[in-house]
Specification:
55% of the residues lie in helices and 9% in strands. It has helices at 16-31, 51-65, 74-78, 82-91, 98-116, 128-140, 144-149, 158-163, 176-186, 197-200, 205-218, 222-242, 263-271, and strands at 8-11, 39-44, 69-73, 121-123, 166-168, 247-248, 255-256. It has a 5-stranded parallel beta sheet, sandwiched between helices. It has a two-stranded antiparallel sheet with strand order 6-7. Bound molecules: iron/sulfur cluster (SF4). The site of iron/sulfur cluster has 8 residues, from helix 5 and helix 10. Iron/sulfur cluster binds at residues 45, 98-99, 102-103, 195, 197-198.
Length: 273
């Protein structure tokens, strides 16, 4: 996944997955002649009573290992925190949930800020369980284009490369339960609470996770089956979607499957009042 010359930006929330990832990338860099040290990047959505605490753990960790750490705020980049956005949308009685807004903005900020920092790779801490959860969610909502897009071996077109940094998910074959054991064995400090919106919102994601964990009790291999299913299906779907023409957002110029505005600019317009 990596070359010594790569400048790796690591998305670090302060939770167990991103801390495990950063710790291992530091170890790899220390053993690799001429490798650049990774740079940590945290996104602060402005989630009350949660994000500041998790970023504090990330800060402590980076300080201990002498890692450059950047913190980017939603408020700075889109003018509003996630809490502000939710308030506005509640007033408008819009039916979307916190995670929808959060994911669109966070993905774009991670990408843009990594490029601004001169990164060549963005490493994210999604584990096997996260992949399975997202795969099942995409099946349930028939988001086939998203399954195609996540195919890890897909060739990226020059149009996409111009705007998006290459992303890697080195923990994608490791179940969450094993990462939990790993951080405890290594005695790595991390922030253990979850985002309050994960359970507060009436979203399916948490229920899908509970379903996977329940199935795992009877079929321990279930996550690997789902993951292998994802790899095969995403390969087939990627061929299908590759031929579809991309449009370009009329505001930011990024490639989009929408008609005129990308999801990020669309959302930014809506929350600007
Ligand atoms: S659970 Fe939802 S709101 Fe919380 S950090 Fe994740 S995507 Fe954002």
């Amino acid at each position: 996944m990596l070359k010594p010359s790569d400048k790796i930006i690591v998305g670090v929330s302060g939770g167990k997955d991103s801390i495990t990832l950063l710790y291992n990338l530091i170890k790899i860099q220390q053993k690799t002649h001429g490798a650049n040290p990774p740079i940590a990047l945290s996104i602060d959505e402005g989630i009350a009573n949660y994000r500041k605490k998790s970023i504090y753990e990330a800060q402590k960790f980076c300080k201990k290992f002498g890692i450059e750490h950047h913190i980017i705020l939603f408020k700075e980049r889109v003018g509003k925190s996630l809490e502000d956005i939710i308030d506005i949308e509640k007033v408008k009685e819009n039916n979307r949930y916190a995670c929808n807004y959060c994911a669109i903005i966070r993905r774009r900020l991670l990408n843009d800020c990594s490029l601004e920092l001169g990164g060549t790779i963005l490493a994210l801490g999604h584990n096997l369980t996260d992949f399975c959860e997202t795969f099942l969610m995409n099946i349930l909502f028939k988001r086939l284009h998203l399954i195609a897009r996540r195919n890890p071996s897909k060739k990226t077109s020059s149009d996409i490369k111009r705007y998006y940094i290459r992303k890697i998910n080195p923990l994608m074959k490791i179940p969450e339960t094993e990462i939990e054991k790993y951080v405890n064995l290594k005695n790595l400090p991390f922030y253990s609470s979850h985002c309050p919106y994960r359970t507060q919102d009436p979203i399916l994601r948490k229920r899908v996770l509970d379903f996977i964990l329940e199935c795992k009790k009877f079929s321990p291999e279930i996550e690997y089956n789902l993951f292998n299913g994802f790899l095969e299906l995403s390969e087939i779907l990627n061929k299908e979607f590759k031929s579809k023409k991309l449009n370009f957002c009329s505001i930011c110029g990024y490639p989009t499957s929408n008609e005129s505005l990308c999801n990020y600019c669309n959302l930014k317009q809506k929350i600007t009042i």
